[in-house]
């Protein structure tokens, strides 16, 4: 694991340098475009813009992101299953500190992790996800997110996102001014000899303004896709149960997809599946602009695993896609990735199957689980949905009155009446 | 002069490597201790949750005295366990007894409808998971430590400062270890 983190740091550094060069080049070209010899000013301007964006996102990025998506913080007693699952995965991943947990009230099932370091990290899930997934599936998703935290992906994505944002912003400014006829128009310069060179530079600047944002996004998305595979592998290694995440991804992929509030192209790679509506329609398209690998492929890889270690994931990836492995060598050499401990994990799964009511389907293969387990699971999923809804009602200041007849009345926070009648049995309840 | 510098350089390199090996040994040993603390916290949590569970279950399960007694007995045995091996044995037995209790509870619909019982069941099964995951992490850390202590060249330093290999923590009921009986009739 530590090796994987080191490799990630090196790659982050290379990526940051590459994008910084792109940003610097764009700034220089813009400067030259506006005024002869203004390249250095443009460069300095780009650097200042980058510095401000970095400082803001470093200190506030996760909070901005969380409040943008309307996330609310969860305590241990609010949603006990969610809290317990995150705590379990914190232990399994060996993180020193449990991340803060947030829930977003949104029917589209999705999840993301954010924060600049494992100590200040947060995970957020949507209420749709909590209602849709059973315990094992939720565990797979949370393990995937903690994998992002553990592999330091969240910092990498933060830096890359900021650089991309700066590039897009600068190119936008340049292109707008070009369209509106601004800049250094074809006024004859005192030095006629430089005319041709100047024209060439102008064309170069315009081309760069168009291409830089596209290139930046391609780099960003390419990195993002690799990170998704590594996080899937981490999830399998932490839970020792790849089928949990596979089932979760299937359910999420099959759910009616909708755009998630607060998600944009810059933040899309942070979610477990692409949260944008347009991308959701053609989720399985493999293209350079995809932030995530196709869900069907991720499921196939997880299902084809013979064990739960990083090696197993890498071999399975090679079998399913016909390409070479996808994980960095450093991750494969990592003792904490579960090499050689497979059998103990399997024994444990077997031993615990009896104790957890929700885990009874664990030992059974997926097709069998749909048969006899279907009836209690419908009841189970209703209970799950109710617990999530109740929590959100309570957060919004709604009061609960449990009537003697078994009905539960939910009272809006600003109801003027002092008494309320139970619609089922007619009992009148006083509202304190 | 050059020879002296070369010799000095080699000495500095060797000493640096030795310090590096020693520090990494200490680091791994601390990691094992930390991982063990996590296992211990979760085992303690399970231990503390059991009286609550017994209190809740007692009113419903009138005909399951044996099952309930087995849990209580296993819990007491955990307290008396001395060595790590004994402790593992006792904790494994406790896990099994709890598993049987929850299996039996399936046939008591009133109990299954009780909010209190459901909350305790979630708490205990989650604790069981946490024990499993903490144990998994602990055993990984022990394996890393043992490899370092036994492999060249770190075994030299480990021997000089008498580092001790760690003990794996295997939660398994003794009965479950027996080979399954197969008959072909």
Overview of the structural elements:
- The complex is a heterodimer of chains A (432) and B (185).
- Chain A is α+β, with helices and mostly antiparallel strands and 432 residues long.
- Chain A has 2 domains: 1-377, no CATH class; 378-430, no CATH class.
- Chain A is built from 15 helices and 8 strands.
- Chain A has helices at residues 2-34, 39-68, 80-93, 127-132, 135-150, 153-179, 195-239, 242-254, 277-281, 295-303, 310-321, 329-332, 342-352, 366-369, 374-395, and strands spanning 71-73, 100-104, 111-114, 122-126, 399-402, 408-411, 419-421, 428-430.
- A 4-stranded mixed β-sheet of chain A has the order 1-2-4-3, sandwiched between helices. Chain A has a two-stranded antiparallel sheet with strand order 5-6.
- In chain A, a hairpin with a 6-residue loop joins strand 7 (419-421) and strand 8.
- Mean pLDDT of chain A is 75; it is low at 186-193 and 338-374.
- By secondary structure, chain B is mainly α.
- Chain B has a single domain, classed as LemA-like domain (de novo design (two linked rop proteins)).
- In chain B, 79% of the residues lie in helices and 0% in strands.
- Chain B contains 7 helices and no strands.
- Chain B has helices at residues 2-58, 65-80, 84-105, 109-113, 115-150, 154-160, 174-177.
- In chain B, helix 1 (2-58) runs antiparallel to helix 2 and helix 2 (65-80) packs antiparallel against helix 3 (84-105).
- The mean pLDDT of chain B is 86.
- Chains A and B meet through helix 3 and helix 13 of A and helix 1, helix 3 and helix 5 of B.
Task: Briefly say what this structure is.
Chain A is of the alpha+beta class. In chain A, 58% of the residues lie in helices and 7% in strands.
Shape of chain A: globular
Strand line-up across the major sheet of chain A: 1-2-4-3
Kindly report the average pLDDT value of chain A.
75
Q: What share of residues of chain A is helical? A: 55-70%
Strand % of chain B is under 5%
For this entry, give a set of tags.
heterodimer; A: 432 residues; alpha+beta; 2 domains; two-stranded antiparallel sheet; 15 helices; globular; B: 185 residues; mainly alpha; de novo design (two linked rop proteins); 7 helices; 79% helix; elongated
């Amino acid at each position: 694991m530590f090796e994987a983190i080191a490799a990630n740091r090196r790659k982050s550094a290379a990526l940051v340098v590459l994008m910084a060069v792109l940003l610097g080049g764009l700034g220089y070209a813009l400067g030259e475009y506006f005024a002869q010899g203004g390249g250095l000013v443009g460069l300095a301007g780009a650097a200042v813009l980058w510095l401000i964006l970095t400082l803001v996102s470093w200190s506030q990025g996760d909070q901005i992101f969380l409040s943008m998506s309307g996330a609310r913080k969860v305590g241990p007693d609010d949603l006990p299953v969610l809290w317990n699952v995150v705590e379990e995965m914190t232990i399994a991943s060996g993180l020193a500190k449990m991340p803060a947990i947030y829930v977003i009230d949104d029917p589209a099932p999705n999840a993301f992790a954010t924060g600049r370091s494992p100590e200040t990290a947060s995970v957020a899930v949507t209420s749709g996800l909590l209602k849709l997934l059973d315990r094992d599936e939720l565990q797979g998703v949370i393990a995937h997110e903690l994998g992002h935290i553990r592999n330091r992906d969240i910092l990498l994505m933060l830096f890359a996102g900021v650089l991309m944002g700066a590039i897009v912003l600068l190119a936008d400014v340049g292109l707008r001014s070009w369209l509106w006829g601004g800049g250094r128009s074809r006024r004859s310069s005192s030095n006629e000899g430089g005319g041709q060179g100047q024209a060439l530079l102008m064309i170069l600047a315009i081309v760069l303004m168009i291409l830089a944002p596209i290139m930046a996004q391609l780099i960003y998305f390419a990195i993002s896709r690799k990170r998704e595979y590594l996080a899937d592998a981490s999830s399998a290694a932490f839970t020792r149960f790849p089928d949990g995440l596979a089932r979760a991804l299937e359910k999420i992929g099959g759910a009616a997809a909708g755009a998630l509030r607060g998600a944009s192209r810059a933040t899309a790679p942070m979610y477990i599946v692409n949260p944008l509506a347009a991308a959701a329609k053609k989720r399985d398209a493999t293209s350079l602009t995809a932030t995530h690998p196709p869900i069907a492929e991720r499921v196939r890889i997880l299902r084809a695993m013979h064990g739960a270690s990083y090696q197993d994931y890498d071999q399975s990836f090679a079998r399913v896609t016909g390409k070479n492995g996808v994980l960095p060598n450093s991750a494969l050499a990592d003792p904490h990735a579960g090499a050689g401990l497979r059998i103990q994990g399997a024994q444990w799964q077997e031993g615990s199957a009896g104790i957890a009511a929700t885990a009874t389907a664990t030992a059974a293969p997926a097709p069998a689980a749909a048969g006899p387990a279907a009836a209690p699971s419908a009841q189970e999923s209703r209970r799950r949905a109710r617990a999530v809804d109740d929590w959100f009602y309570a957060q919004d200041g709604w009061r609960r009155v449990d009537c003697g007849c078994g009905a539960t009345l939910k009272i809006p926070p600003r109801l003027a009446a002092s008494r309320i009648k139970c619609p089922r049995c007619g009992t009148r309840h006083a509202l304190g | 002069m050059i020879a002296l510098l070369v010799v000095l350089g080699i000495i500095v390199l060797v000493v640096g490597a030795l310090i590096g090996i020693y520090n990494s040994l200490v680091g791994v040993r601390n990691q094992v201790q930390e991982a063990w603390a996590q296992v211990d916290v979760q085992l303690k949590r399970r231990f503390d949750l059991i009286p609550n569970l017994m209190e809740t279950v007692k009113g419903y399960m009138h005909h399951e005295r044996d099952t309930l007694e087995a849990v209580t007995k296993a819990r007491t045995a955990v307290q008396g366990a001395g060595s790590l091996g004994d402790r593992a044995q006792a904790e494994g037995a406790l896990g099994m007894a709890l598993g049987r209790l929850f299996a039996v509870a399936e046939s008591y619909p009133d109990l299954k409808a009780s909010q209190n019982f459901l909350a305790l069941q979630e708490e205990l099964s989650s604790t069981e998971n946490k024990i499993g995951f903490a144990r998994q992490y602990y055993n990984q850390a022990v394996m890393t430590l043992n490899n370092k202590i036994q492999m060249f060249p770190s075994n030299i330093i480990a021997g000089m400062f008498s580092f001790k290999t760690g003990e794996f923590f295997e939660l398994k009921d003794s009965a479950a270890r027996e080979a399954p009986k197969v008959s072909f009739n």
